[in-house]
Design brief:
alpha/beta, six-stranded parallel beta sheet
């Protein structure tokens, strides 16, 4: 089977065009790791860039990479018409059996839906829900992204939904849906490393600082816990954007860092993230809206205690997970009480990481993708 995956090359997202290697979002990266272990399939990854970048012909023995140069005019200002045209031209040469658009956030899903080949789409972030959450104004990016998401869902053969939450949002707008969770990158299934001793418990929060992730509110809850004499270190991992919310967070973090109970450790690569999790004790992930919550599964795969919001796919991921505690996304009092109990009881970590392997390993998820592709193709 010849499969095309249309996904975002993060060199475009981060302006990293000097990097000679493409890199992708965590879920597509994990899926490609699964496909790399299946020599009987041929996978072609297509990504669009606004600037030329040196790229390898292959990223695995059976996975080819194609970088398409699309001028700025061909992106959102023309509803990704230039990206869709470039993708169609490449597909006519490749003649794939099926095309898979990874995500409705940008050009991937709409390019797949307009490809002229049998196609499916994966929802990573629900643009309709995000546009509503932010009160997207007429003509704004999120308003347009919602419209393009609707168009792609109407046209594609079916949609991969990573949670029941996503299913409920998507089902009325498309022909067919399948529940398929995102895969975890294989590195998160490496053997666990011993945890450092003789230190205060470390609690992680991972993600871009934004209102939806509630880092300012988490930091305020941590300040109240610290004021009651509880000993811990809250470490924030991720980008602090130069937004009003980012600046508010940075100001609050400066005081917390001075008091000694919180700090920002910056962006971490996968090779850095795994040992950072192994050196920590817990994860707080408290979004008001989320499609899946990959970081939740990653943390549970590394045996971290989990405190989370009962939103999106996090509910399913945490279901049955040892020690996982969920609360309404506004219940910071409940969150504080749970953290207090956990610290008082010795800040123990769970021991059931192996359960994540059977649900989210790249090979498990890649095999499920092949089953669905065959269903779409009637073979």
């Amino acid at each position: 089977m010849r499969i095309v995956q249309i996904t975002t090359d993060n060199r475009e997202h981060y302006g990293d065009h000097a990097n000679p290697r493409p890199y992708f979002g965590t879920a597509p990266t994990a899926l490609l790791q699964g496909f790399a272990g299946m020599p009987d399939v041929e996978v072609h990854v297509i990504s669009c860039l606004q600037q030329r970048a040196a790229s390898p012909e292959k990223i695995a023995p059976n996975i080819f990479f194609h970088s398409l140069l699309v001028p700025k005019l061909g992106w959102m200002r023309t509803l990704y018409a230039g990206c869709a045209r470039a993708v169609r031209a490449k597909l006519r040469k490749l003649q794939p059996d099926i095309v898979h658009g990874q995500g409705t956030e940008r050009e991937c899903a709409i390019s797949a839906a307009r490809s002229g080949f049998p196609n499916v789409v994966t929802i990573h972030g629900n643009m309709k829900a995000i546009a509503q959450l932010y009160g997207a104004k007429l003509g704004s990016f999120h308003w347009l992204a919602e419209k393009l998401e609707n168009a792609a869902l109407r046209k594609t053969a079916g949609v991969f939904c990573n949670s029941a939450y996503t299913e409920n949002l998507v089902a009325p707008r498309t022909k067919k849906i399948w529940r398929v969770p995102n895969a975890l990158r294989s590195e998160f299934f490496a053997p666990l490393t011993p945890r450092p001793a003789n230190r205060v418990p470390v609690i992680l929060n991972i993600g871009v600082v934004e209102p939806r992730k509630q880092q300012v509110e988490i930091l305020e809850a941590a300040r109240r816990l610290h004021a009651r004499g509880l000993k811990f270190e809250l470490q924030f991992v991720g980008l602090i954007p130069k937004t009003d919310y980012g600046q508010k967070f940075a100001a609050a973090l400066a005081g917390a860092a001075s008091a000694g109970f919180a700090k920002h450790v910056g962006l971490l690569t996968t090779s850095q993230m795994v040992p950072a999790m192994d050196a920590a004790d817990a994860l707080i992930h408290f979004p008001t809206e989320e499609a899946f919550g990959l970081v939740t599964a990653e943390a549970l795969a590394r045996n971290l205690k989990f405190f989370g919001a009962a939103t999106g796919g996090g509910v399913e991921i945490a279901s049955g997970a040892e020690g996982a505690e969920l609360f309404p996304a506004t219940d910071f009092a409940g969150l504080e009480k749970a953290i207090t109990r956990w610290l008082a009881a010795g800040a123990a970590r769970p021991q059931n990481a192996a359960a994540m392997r059977t649900r989210y390993h790249p090979e498990v998820i890649a095999r499920r993708h092949l089953e669905i592709y065959r269903e779409v193709l009637g073979c």
